[in-house]
Amino acid sequence: MSALWLSRTKTGIRIAVQVSPNARKSEIVSSEGDALRIKLQAPPVDGKANDALVQFLAKKLEVPRKQVTITHGQTNRRKLLEITADMTPENIEERLLRT
Fold first, then answer.
1. Residue 79: in which H helix or E strand, if any?
2. Rounded to whole angstroms, how far apart are CA atoms 93 and 49?
3. pLDDT tens across 48-79, in order?
4. Fewer CB near the last or first residue (10 Å), C or N of the chain?
5. What is the three-state SS of 80-96?
6. Which domains does the chain have, with CATH numbers?
7. What mean pLDDT is reported for the chain?
């Protein structure tokens, strides 16, 4: 596994992300470094950006939303998410970075 932003946990896979809200469209900008950089169309108000992030990642990973959870950084741009789907880190990396 090469991505620094991906790691295994006892219950799934952890993803470190850096979020930029209020973007023109939601997209993954970069997978370099220790965080997956994601632009989100949603504003950072009333949890809208967090909801958009969970929905965006669930769609990219082709898993139900309930399998994507923000575990740390609810109010920060930098967040940790846990994916509890039956997938390997390599599967997750491939699905997220496919264009």
1. strand 78-83
2. 22
3. 999 999 999 999 999 999 999 999 999 999 99
4. C
5. EEEECCCCCHHHHHHHH
6. 6-97 (3.30.1200.10)
7. 94
